[in-house]
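Dear Dr. V.,

Thank you for agreeing to look over these. As mentioned in my earlier message, I'm a first-year student in the group and I'm still getting used to reading structure tokens, so any feedback on how I've presented them would be very welcome. I ran two proteins. I've put each sequence directly above its structure. The first is here:
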Amino acid sequence: MEILYRDEAILVCLKPPRVLSTDEPGGLPELLRQELGDEKADVRTVHRLDRVVGGVMVLAGSAQSASELSRQIREGEFHKEYLAVVNGVTEPEGELRDLLRRDRARKMTFVADAPGKDVQEARLRYVTIGRSGDRSLVRIELETGRTHQIRVQFASRGLPLLGERKYAEPADSCELALWSHRIGFTHPQSGERLDFCALPPAQYPWTLFRNPDAF
């Protein structure tokens, strides 16, 4: 477990893929307490990554910090950037807007034709920063944070992420090629604006894009 930063108010780390973000057995807070050697450490989840997604996350060290970070997320003051490898050739840049419906029984998200129950607007912007054959490396800025948003919005346009098994027929046996690359927020105590960034692991399919400046 790699910890990038810690003080009494926050803890920033790299969540490994296939680890739950929430505080339950085997979840990220429990693993962090083990890493810290303190099973009573106050480590609180304030935002989530899909279980199969890894990358940068911040957790709160108190109820007050959790409340302030949650407010920033609700009010659009929390910046989130992702990297993804897409099956297909994307435009140089673009904005995706959809209505997404969450099917809680099936634990899946779908593009909806019209507003309705469990339907929310989803928005993201992306820039294509690399190509390898018919695969594209994109940097994504989330404007909303819907469940499975990135995966569904790209898959619905015939551009599924590599390693996608839920919303497309998998063409690769790799892990889902989606990585929380950067987060930015205001420190809940000091008021300082903070920014944390980490590259994805040096393994397939990220290694298809050899120029490190691309990230």
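The second protein is here, in the same arrangement:
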Amino acid sequence: MNSEIKTGIFCTGVTEWALKYFHGHELSITRGTSYNAYLIKDGEFNVLIDSVKAPHVPEFLKKLEAIVPLDKITHYVINHTEPDHSGAFTAIMAKSPNAKIICSRGGQKPLLRHYPGNWNIQPVKTGDEIKLHSKTLRFFEAQMLHWPDSMFTYCPEEKILFPNDAFGQHYASSSKFADDVDQCELWQEAMKYFANILTPFSGQIINKVNDFSKLGWPVEMICPSHGMIWRKNVTQIIEKYVEWASGKAEPGVVIIYDTIWGGTEKMARAISRGLDSANVQFRIFNAGTSDFNDVNTEILKYKGVLIGCPTLNNSLMPTIAPFLESLKGLRFVNKVGAAFGTYGWSGEGCARLEEFMKSGNISIVQQPIKANYNPNEEDLAKCEQFGKDFAEHLK
């Protein structure tokens, strides 16, 4: 497929179809991913924007060399120094020793930590420009989208934004464009990407989107470094980022639980019956069998979070811990929650659940509900009422 996305602008990255985890084993991905890099040919200027992860460097170099001799690269723009986007750095510089390296003011230190050397680095700030032949490159510092070094590169003549990790998805396809792929899959992956990577920076995202909007730079194409290129109705993904970052969510509930002898599961199902009677949508996840990245995606979507667990060794079941640690790190916006669970003789589980939920920025809106050993019919009736009561907090 032709890699030229605009006259003189090429998408030169690599698609990884079979990858199942990202960031080590921290993030599950189910539809592969891509490492999108871009090459601009403009007169005597050849500008490379970002690169690929180290294992894919040979394939990447072949793609570049099919477009331009590597020793003719004049500028190498590094929007973000994370190794999945800079893994070809030393290979590129070995072939293009005279290329000027462009990075944000916050990017110089991490770049040299990853790739020590005496490089020709030109740090840039918001509004700085590089004039090419017929095109211009303009820069915007996008700190914490999602690292302190992150920046956007913008081409005003083509109205193209190269935002690196912002507005992307872990999504492999034979096409390069968002409008060519299954829209349900696309938006599911865009939401999962935001929920698990960008949620902790929601406040900065809103500020940066506002700052960028004030510049008045029109955008007709967004070329992220993972996934699909946006070329139709491109503001839709920006609007979604603002919506997700502001905590706007559907009035539904995510129920997460684990169980030893089935008692806490009975409670979860009884609570869901109460929610259902109040016409509230819900999703139920067993912590022992569910992927916490997928659960986080549902938490981004819904306002309510209910977590249940038996008390085990005066604390919580280990299977619930990854979900709680994830919540603590992500700090979702505008979520409400409550705890539930069974216990035998001590009953500290619900209090421990509440501690974690509060540390994850989830507002506890009603008292926890507990059942001793195995919940009886009276306990389960109370659980149904618990669900009905919780539904009131979603309005």
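From my reading of the second output: The mean pLDDT is 95. DSSP finds twelve helices and 22 strands in the chain. Does that match how you would interpret it?

Kind regards,
E.
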